[in-house]
From TrEMBL:
Keywords: Membrane, Transmembrane, Transmembrane helix. Pfam families: PilN. It comes from the Bacteria. InterPro entries: ATPase_NBD, Extracell_DNA_Util/SecSys_Comp, PilN. This is PilN domain-containing protein. The chain crosses the membrane at residues 221-241.
Length: 386
């Protein structure tokens, strides 16, 4: 487990630095503060979260405590008091802070540390503490085992491909004495830092092996709440999808029913159109055609008595064929030209005399004259072209 933690530590540190360097923490802090300010005063403390840093400073044999960002200092106490009394004094000084959020930082005076500004390659951002140990001999007169140190990235612009950093070094001799006083008093600290005005600088000179491990008892609860929220979100999404599927299935059923009704209506409409078309077709055929009886009656009235027909045909296109014998076949053309039922009368082939009857045998063809068209042949050709 330790090896896994060591392996993931650079990635975690990189993620923390990226998060701190982004504008999101400041925006979320501002937004949360604005929302908390809208709540009643009694509720504001319940919704405050995050670490509360209290700065512990040692001056002239006395300990002073104040909250980071506040100028007011609590009543000091002497470092010669016994451990229970000093712990009671500290508890009184931080009485308004939740013990789970309380973080103590030992603040060193500015004159007790050495600060150096460095320009480093961007690749050094992920290993600042190792770079600080490497630069110790060149930037300070101390060795690494003689000091407590930290290297922090400075905000602001820097040359391309470089980052600005600050190396902060404090001799172990001066820090160890204060740490020993706190250890004898039973007071554990979380960081060794510097004070800039009424705030901490934001570094920790303690090496990682000396840092106090903070166990957040609310982390498990927060993880459980986050898991429950995620589960509820998944359930809500599942319920929403289920409702959508049910609504879609109901709509599909309605569409299927309407589709069946539409098919029935379409079938009835087709049957009606077919029936209307058939009746209309018969009516049009009756109106557009000439009765054969009328044609025969017209021919009988016009053909002379010395002429008779042996064969008479009318095909579907209205073409009339007549074959017969006559004493004089040639005048038949003139006789039939005035007919109102047939037109275009012509002989087919030559007129021959029949030796048996001594009459002229002929074959004629003509075209029925349609009642609604003066030129049926041309109209039928135009309809075919269309």
């Amino acid at each position: 487990m330790n090896s896994a933690t060591q392996t993931l530590r650079p990635q975690l540190e990189r993620a923390r630095r990226a998060w701190r360097g982004s504008p999101l923490p400041g925006f979320l802090a501002w937004w949360g503060g604005e929302l908390r300010s809208l709540l009643p005063v009694r509720w504001q403390s319940l919704f405050s979260s995050g670490n509360v840093w209290c700065l512990l400073r040692h001056e002239d044999g006395h300990w002073h405590v104040r909250r980071s960002g506040q100028a007011q200092t609590t009543a000091p106490w002497s470092d010669t008091l016994d451990a229970p009394t000093q712990q009671a004094m500290l508890n009184t000084a931080v009485a308004g802070v939740d013990r789970q959020d309380l973080r103590l930082a030992l603040c060193l005076p500015l004159e007790a540390v050495l600060r150096r500004r460095l320009l480093l390659p961007e690749v050094a951002r992920d290993n600042l503490r190792q770079i600080g140990a490497f630069e110790m001999d060149r930037q300070t007169p101390f060795r690494t085992d003689q000091v407590y140190y930290d290297l922090r990235e400075l905000p602001g612009s820097a040359p391309a491909g470089r980052i600005a950093a600050e190396l902060i070094v404090a001799p172990r001799t001066s820090v160890d004495a204060k740490l020993e006083h706190l250890r004898n008093a039973g007071i554990a600290i979380d960081a060794v830092d510097l004070c800039e005005g009424d705030k901490r600088l934001g570094v920790n000179l303690l090496p990682p092996e000396m840092a106090r491990v903070q166990r957040d008892p609310r982390r498990r609860l927060n993880l459980m709440l986050a898991g429950a929220a995620a589960l509820l979100l998944v359930l809500c999404l599942g319920q929403w999808l289920h409702n959508r599927e049910e609504a879609l299935a109901a709509m599909q059923t309605q569409v299927d029913d309407m589709h069946g009704d539409a098919q029935k209506v379409a079938l009835l409409r087709k049957q009606l159109e077919d029936s209307a078309g058939a009746s209309g077709f018969l009516a049009r055929r009756k109106m557009d055609s000439v009765a054969v009886v009328d044609v025969l009656q017209d021919l009988t009235a016009r053909i002379p008595d010395d002429t008779w027909l042996e064969r008479f045909t009318i095909d579907s296109s209205g073409r009339v064929g007549m074959q017969g014998q006559s004493d004089k076949a040639a005048p038949l053309i003139d006789v039939l030209q005035s007919s109102k039922l047939i037109t275009g009368t012509n002989f087919q082939g030559v007129i021959q005399r029949d030796p048996a009857t001594n009459k002229e045998r002929f074959f004629m063809d003509a075209q029925l004259r349609m009642p609604n068209s003066a030129k049926p042949a041309s109209n039928s050709g135009a309809g075919a072209a269309q």
